[in-house]
Structure formats: structure tokens, C-alpha cells
Amino acid sequence: MRTPWGGWQGSWKLRFYKEDEILLTGLTYTPHSILNPMLAGLDGCRAGWIAVTWQKNRYSFTLYPQFQNFLEDNPDLTRALIDIPIGLSSPGYPRTVESVLRKHLPGRGSTVFNVPCRAAVYETDFDKAREFNIMTEGKSLSVQSLNICSKIREVDKLLPLEDGSVLLESHPELGFKSLNGGEVVLTRKNTPQGIEERLSLLEKADPGAAEAYRSIQGKFKRKDAKPDDLLDALCLCVINRLAGESGLSYVEDQHSRDEKDIPIRIAMLAL
């Protein structure tokens, strides 16, 4: 039987139950993707993408040059949280969720950047991209926003995923906030203090996650992936795993879908 995630593996269980004092039997099917889900968290880095996967009670860190490489290497993916905009604006389809997201991160609103419109994302000339964004959004784009266009494009051109796996936009600082009892972590994550504070939160949530982070120190060159890139991807993977128990909630507003009918929402751990 085909699973909801696109695979054909699973297990059958014979069940006995009573109905009106009559003993009945039935078979129930549970896909392996549910019995043994593959969950992931991804963050962009200089060399491509850092992906942290969790399966069989184990965290793994992998560097991929392209987002498509990650999908090809993980055909059994159940759900991934990714720190990249999903759902882009175009004429008549604004994306305004960033203003709501900043309210969820008081003191850390600078970590939320303005997302380029779809036309700007697919324009390689920065000046033309700015012009497209002014026409669609009424504002220009920062260098930070322009520099991430190529990664947004990598993901957007593959959406929606055809294999049934779930890809959700998320934000690491929302994840750390949920692990911190709903309080925003105000230290900067690119400082030793900021990294240690966030690592401590991950350790409280899952000691295995912190151990996995420490075990890969020195295995990635800083020119390819910075320590906070690894930490952010790990945070999203941990949130993804914990959500299997308490569920996800979303930051969203009235502009909830883009022109391609892709949902515009940012996943977070339900508090």
C-alpha cells in the first residue's frame, strides 16, 4: 500500500475489538514513514545548505551544495523545516507576514528581513531586481535580501514537492524562543555567549542534540558553514521532532497564499 509520503513500505497489525458484544477483527496499516519518520532542519550557508536530519533516534549533519541535492539524498523525507521564505509576493498577492513575525521577536526583529517578490527572486541583475521589487512591494531591497535570492529561487522552483513530503518555512529564533519558555533569546547567535545560551536550551530539550552538535565541531570549514548555521539547522530539526508530540502552530496573516497557491506561513512549536 502506498504511504501518505510517497513510499510503499509499512507494517500491518491484526486488531481485535468489540462492537455490540460481537468480536471483530481488522487489519491496520502503519507506514514506515510514520513508524520511523525522517525529519529535518535546514539553514542556508556560504557553501550551500546545512541539513540536520533525525531518524532512528540519531541526528546527522550534512552539507549540500544545492537544495535539490538534499531532496535527492533523502527520498524518505517526512517533513522538513527550512529557514527560507516559502510563498512569494507578486502583483495582487502581497506577502506581509514579516510584520507579524517581527512582533513575535521583540528585540530580535533585525533577524527578519524583507522578502523579495518573485520577479526579483528570478532576476539575476541586482538593479533590475530592486526595480521589480519597488513595482510590486513599493520598496527596494537590501544587499542581504538580494544575496539570498538564489537560495529562495532554488526552493521556489521545486514547489510544491511532488513526493508528498512536507516542507515548511520556519525561523530559528522562533524555535529558540519556544525552547526558552516563550521568551525571546536576546543574545546574538554569532557570539560565543549566544551560541552557548542556545546550545544550553537545545540540551535541555534533547541532550542528544547538544551532543551531536559538539561531536561535529571542526568537521565543517568556517568558510563553508559557520557555527551558528549549524546551530540554526539543528534547532529547526529539534523543533520538528518535538512537534511530533505537541504539534506545530503558525505565524500567518490575512495574505495566506501566493499566486502559485503556496501557503505563506511560518511554522513554530505549539506552546
Quick tags:
single chain; 271 residues; alpha/beta; five-stranded mixed beta sheet; two-stranded antiparallel sheet; 37% helix; disordered N terminus
In words, what does this structure look like?
Helices cover 37% and strands 23% of the residues. With 271 residues, it is an alpha/beta fold. It has a five-stranded mixed β-sheet with strand order 5-4-3-6-7. The protein has a two-stranded antiparallel ribbon with strand order 1-2. A two-stranded antiparallel ribbon has the order 8-9.
The overall average pLDDT, rounded, is 87
Q: What's the Cα radius of gyration? A: 20 Å
Report the span from N to C terminus.
Answer: 35 Å
Strand elements, count: 9
The helix content is 25-40%
Q: Which strand-content bin applies to the residues?
A: 15-25%
| Principal-axes shape call | globular
- Contiguous uncertain segments of 5+ residues: 1-33
- Order of strands across the main sheet: 5-4-3-6-7
Compact description:
The protein has 271 residues and is an alpha/beta fold.
Question: Secondary structure elements and their pairing?
Answer:
Blueprint: E1 10-19, E2 22-31, H1 32-35, E3 38-45, E4 48-55, E5 58-64, H2 67-73, E6 77-82, H3 97-104, H4 118-121, H5 126-137, H6 143-147, H7 149-156, E7 166-169, H8 172-179, H9 192-205, H10 207-215, H11 227-246, E8 248-251, E9 266-269
Parallel strand pairs: 3-6, 6-7
Antiparallel strand pairs: 1-2, 3-4, 4-5, 8-9
Helix pairs in contact: 8-11, 9-10, 9-11
